[in-house]
Amino acid sequence: MTVYGSAIIQSDRLLVWSQNETELILLFTDTGTHADPF
C-alpha cells in the first residue's frame, strides 16, 4: 500500500511525501509568492 501526504512548512514552502513498504520519497519545494513574478 502506498501512502501520500503533504504539509505546509511555511507560507511558501511545501513538503510532499510518498511511502510504501520499501521506500520513502520526500519532495521539499518553494512555491514562491504572488509578488515573485513581478
Automatic annotation (TrEMBL):
Protein name stated in the entry? Uncharacterized protein
Highest rank taxon of the organism: Bacteria
Organism equals: Parabacteroides merdae CL03T12C32
